[in-house]
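thought: fold this chain, then report.
action: predict
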Amino acid sequence: MTDIKILVPHVKEGYEERARFISDMLRREGLQFEFILGGDISDLTPEVLDRYFTGKMKKPAATTSCAMKHLLACEYVLEHSLPGALVMEDDMILYKNFQKVFDECMAEMERDHIDNALINFEDSALRFVPGSQRRKGKHLYRATRDRFTGCYYLSRGAARLIMDYVGKHKCDENADEFHRALISRAALPYYWCHPCIATQGTHNGLFPSSIDEKSAAKQRYRANTWKLKLAYKKLIYLFR
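observation:
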C-alpha cells in the first residue's frame, strides 16, 4: 500500500500526543502520510460556514471542525486527481493484519470493478458483517448503514459525490452522521471491510475525545468495558 495516499485529520495545537502517536505508528508500518491541518475552529470563518454548512453545524465548534477536516480530505483527493486516499483520524490503532487486508481490499475493488466506494475498516462502532453473509476470500460488503469516520478508504468517485452534495445542500450533521445520511440521501456506495483492521483510541480508552466535553467519565467507562463489548458484539454478529 505504499502508493496509497494517507491523510490524517489533525488539530494544529493541543493534540501533540496524538500527533506523536499516529506518526510513530505509521512510520513503524513504513507508511508515508500527510496531516490535514486546515479546518480548525479558528479557520471556521463566516464565509467557510456559509459555503459548507447549514443548520446545527453552521457554527465554529469542535464537531464542525471535525466535519470540515473530512471535507478537506475529499477536496484533497479531487484537487490532486488521486484515485482515492486512506483517511485516518489521529487516534487510530491499526491491527497487525492491516496492510495485508487493506491490499486485498484494493485488489477486490479492482477485480469486482468497484470504482466508486467508501470502505470502512474500523470496529469502533461495534458493527460487523453478519456471519451468514460472509464469504471466503471476500472482504468488502455493501452496507446500508455507517460505521464511524476513524479509518476509511475514500475513492475519487465517493469524494466527488460527497462534495457535489455539499455544494447543493451543505453539511448538516457531524462527520459520522453525515456519512450515514449520505447512504440514504445520495446513494453513497458504502462498504464494510471484514475483518475489521483498525480501532479508535478514543473508544478503547487510550485517548480522551476531542469533541465530547463530558468525556472523562465516559472514557473511563469505555476503557473498562471496551474489550467485553467488542467480544460480545463479534459473537452476536457471528451467529446472525
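thought: worth noting. The chain is about 40% helix and 15% strand.
final: C-alpha cells above.
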